[in-house]
Model the fold of this input.
Amino acid sequence: MARPRKELRGFQRVHVPRGQKKTVQIPLKAQTLAYWDEARNQSVVEEGRLQLALGGSSADERLKTIVEVVR
Done:
């Protein structure tokens, strides 16, 4: 079964007035990255490279980084 290209896994609405900056922390535990694998009939966290993006919407990605998921 194909998985979506993008998935929302962490969310926090933050208002940042123009010209100001804010630091925001959105913890993502490994289980947050899990998906339901029908073949195994269980929740699975895949190992490998994963791109995380931050922005106002999925079309407005202002910051991206790659993380490595390992067991």
About this structure: The longest strand covers residues 48-57. Residues 8 and 57 are 10 Å apart (CA to CA). The mean pLDDT is 89.
